[in-house]
Amino acid sequence: MKSKILVKRLKPSARLPIKGTPGSSGFDLFACIDSGSEIIKIGPTPVQIPTGIQLEIPIGLDVQVRPRSGLTLAGVMVPLGTIDSDYRGEIFITMYCVGTNQSYDVKNGDRVAQLVITSLVETNIEITTEDLSNTERNSGGYGSTGT
Fold first, then answer.
1. Is the dihedral of CA 114, 31, 7, 90 positive or negative?
2. Phi, psi torsion values for 71, nearest 5 degrees
3. What is the DSSP string of 61-123?
4. Arithmetic mean of pLDDT, 84-108
5. Quick one: DSSP state of residue 137?
6. Residue 35 pLDDT level (bands cut at 50, 70, 90)
7. CB under 8 Å to 17, separation ≥6 — which residues?
8. Cα(76)–Cα(34) distance, rounded to whole angstroms?
9. Could you tell me the pTM of the whole model?
10. How far is CA 44 from CA 3, 26, 62, 77, in A?
11. Is the pLDDT of residue 3 over 90?
């Protein structure tokens, strides 16, 4: 059975999330800038980019905001974020520049991030005083599985 996420436009120019191709796992999110200049300049300090939409997400879905690979390659970062099912405010995308790219202009209608939607598994977390099961890795941390 297919789930349904309701989308409300908060501004007339807001674009609905869409998949770029039938094989895409994420829905593209678009900037909706109604500030007159229709451009937001991004630098090394995080900036919130409005999308002009809000979502009604059913309980049981995990909706994540993820970066677009083309922007990441250009040094424009979007940190991973989760949109909870009980959040009803406008969706904003946090963006900033890294590396040699000191600035980037986001224009109204630009694709700025993607939504990836998965199902959640209902889980209980329990405390134990027993030893946890062993694995080949055990407590090996960063870099312990090779490069």
1. positive
2. -70, -40
3. EEEEEE--HHHHHTTEE---EEE-TT--SEEEEEEEE-TT---EEEETT-EEEEEEEEE----
4. 94
5. S
6. low
7. 7, 27, 28, 29, 30, 53, 115
8. 22
9. 0.86
10. 37, 26, 29, 10
11. no
Domain locations in the chain? 10-119
Which CATH code for domain 10-119?
2.70.40.10
What digits encode the pLDDT tens for the residues 4-24?
999 999 999 999 999 999 999
Quickly tell me which residue has 């879905």 as its tokens. Answer: 61
Can you give the length of the chain in residues? 147
pLDDT band at residue 138, thresholds of 50, 70 and 90? confident
3-state DSSP of 1-36: CCCCCEEEECCCCCCCCECCCCCCCEEEEECCCCCC
